[in-house]
Amino acid sequence: MWPFLVKHQSLSTEAKQDGLKKQIVKLFLDEGEKTIPEVCHFARLSIPTGTKLVEELVRLGFLTEIGKRDSLGGRRPAIFDLNPDNGYVIGVEVLLHSMRVDIVNLRHEVVYEYENQAFDLSRKEEAFEFLCGIIPDLIASQKIPRDKILGVGMGITGRISPWQGISYSYLNFDVPLVKLLTDKWKMPVYIDNDTHLMALGEKRFGYARGLQNVIYVNISRGLGIGIISNGMIHNGHSGYAGEFGHILAEENGRLCVCGKRGCLGGLVSGFALETAYQELTGAPAPHYKQILRMALDGDADVRNILSSMGEQLGRSLAILVDILNPEMIILGGGFSFACEWMKFAVIQGINQYSLPQLASDCEIKVSDLGDKAEMLGAFALVFDEVLK
Ligand SMILES: [Zn+2]
User: What local confidence, expressed as pLDDT, does residue 5 receive?
Assistant: First the structure.
């Protein structure tokens, strides 16, 4: 583990220096390469203090000089960045029928990817045993030294209490999931709902960066939202905020997995797309991403389905626009690569059903992070904790 990550009990000079080093490392993690004057400006340090700290981080192997900045006159300042192999975060996505692991270096580059499409979260004991084994196996196979792993950030579908480290909907044991996994893996583990992590990824590295009030829509096999309110992820009282897929959208509608009828997720989601496709063709539906690819390849029927889904989504989002007054709505999740086919209908739905001033103040974007959002969120989650 990095020496300056020690949690100090007193306000000694050493504690203060370690605090400043954490601040500088965080600056590089969030924003990438910087010169010493830039570090001093953003971290509000004097030039002598900033220079001394950067030089020390270079000596310790955390920062490395990667080139010189162009200059209009005088000496060209050196540009520094994090040494990418000096630390790794393990991002894990746990969904109902799949799980994914990304090992990410300090420049947010994925150095190893693993995906299991045969994973079954409903088989609690088996799923837990599999998770316990796969992480140490991947670390060993990639020959990553244990002391370089800063932690595991895990996004899980369903109701999660990030503060208590408990997953209520799945993998719920007598002991909090985070405690069980920390004991097994002997490294820090942090969990949150998968959609909340995607929203955090967008906040740090996507279109929501620097914005204060944003709604991130995760359209995947299910439907959920992550709310960024006054610059913070809104988790709600218990951690469950954002269950947009289970709001009522159709009286006496289709039965939902939650046990109620007419949920929005029954009309707008990967599951809904597969059902609509099956009803249209009478043939068994392929995976929703394959159906989305048909839209990209020009299939007019699939494009029509996406357009009506977009309109329904826009109608429901209009309620949130009126209540929350967001400056941006980001459409993302598994649908990201095909969301352009829904965007126009979503905008129409919002314009038709929300107040004009609120609708015109809200920009609608399709995520440019796509399916990377969650792993970047896992990265941010781990660093927010270890650099505290
Ligand atoms: Zn429901």
Answer: 80
Q: Count of domains in the chain?
A: 3
Calculate how far, in angstroms, residue 36's C-alpha sits from the geometric centre of ligand 1.
52
User: What is the 226 CA–ligand 1 centroid distance (Å)?
Assistant: 17
Q: From the CA of 263, how far away is ligand 1's center (Å)?
A: 5
Q: What is the pLDDT of residue 298?
A: 94
- Identify the domain containing residue 305 by its residue range: 210-368
Q: Which two tokens stand for residue 368?
A: 């440019």
Q: How close is the Cα of 259 to the center of ligand 1, in Å?
A: 6
| Percent over 70 (pLDDT), the chain | 100
For residue 146, being part of any structural domain is answered with: yes
Residue pLDDT, tens place only, 144-201: 999 999 999 999 999 999 999 999 999 999 999 999 999 999 999 999 999 999 999 9
Q: How far is the CA of 245 from the centre of ligand 1 (A)?
A: 6
Q: Please indicate, yes or no, whether residues 222 and 312 belong to a single structural domain of this protein.
A: yes
CA of 124 to the centre of ligand 1 (A): 21
Instruction: Measure 244 CA to ligand 1 centroid, in angstroms.
Output: 9
- Is residue 203, in this structure, part of any structural domain at all? no
Beta-sheet strands, E only, within the chain: 34-35, 63-68, 78-82, 88-94, 99-105, 110-116, 149-156, 160-161, 166-167, 189-193, 214-219, 223-229, 232-233, 328-332, 363-366
